[in-house]
């Protein structure tokens, strides 16, 4: 009896364990999409960090995407001060939304005087930085 060498259907991949899928390099579409989204969000964060630095901000706290955060749940991706304004940015891909823990953190930070923004593009960040003025 020969071995199966053809492509695996989505239904077949869903019936397999995650270990089996990993061994075969055959993720489900949802798993493949999650990996792609994580890469896209990491690249967007890199571009946003560069935009913040270009605006004259010298000190930025940012979360690492390749490791589990050690900060409180819901802590935003970027925190910095621009012209006396404490700013927190949570980066999401277009269509993405805050998780409940991020929403709760945003409310707490805004109550403490932070400007909290959910951003989906470098253009949005540039606009926020312009509103806060030059360094």
Please tell me the CATH architecture by its name: 3-Layer(aba) Sandwich
Mean pLDDT across all residues, rounded?
A: 87
The radius of gyration computed from the alpha-carbon positions, rounded to a whole number of angstroms, is 20 Å
> Sheet with the most strands?
4 strands, mixed
Largest sheet: spatial strand order: 1-2-3-4
* Strand residues, percent: 5-15%
What would CATH call the class? Alpha Beta
Shape: elongated
Low-confidence stretches: none
Q: Give, in order, the helices and strands.
A: HHHEEEHEH
Overall tally of structural domains:
1
Helical percentage = 40-55%
Distance between the termini: 72 Å
Q: Number of helix segments?
A: 5
């Amino acid at each position: 009896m020969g071995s199966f060498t053809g492509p695996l259907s989505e239904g077949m991949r869903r019936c397999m364990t995650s270990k089996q899928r990993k061994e075969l390099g055959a993720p489900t579409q949802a798993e493949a999409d999650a990996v792609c989204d994580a890469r896209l969000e990491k690249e967007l964060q890199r571009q946003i960090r560069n935009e913040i630095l270009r605006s004259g901000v010298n000190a930025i706290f940012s979360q690492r995407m390749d490791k589990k955060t050690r900060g409180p749940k819901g802590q935003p991706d970027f925190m910095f001060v621009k012209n006396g304004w404490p700013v927190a940015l949570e980066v999401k891909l277009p269509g993405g939304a805050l998780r409940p823990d991020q929403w709760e953190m945003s409310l707490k930070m805004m109550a403490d005087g932070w400007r909290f923004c959910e951003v989906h593009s470098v253009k949005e960040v540039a606009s926020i930085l312009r509103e806060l003025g030059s360094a």
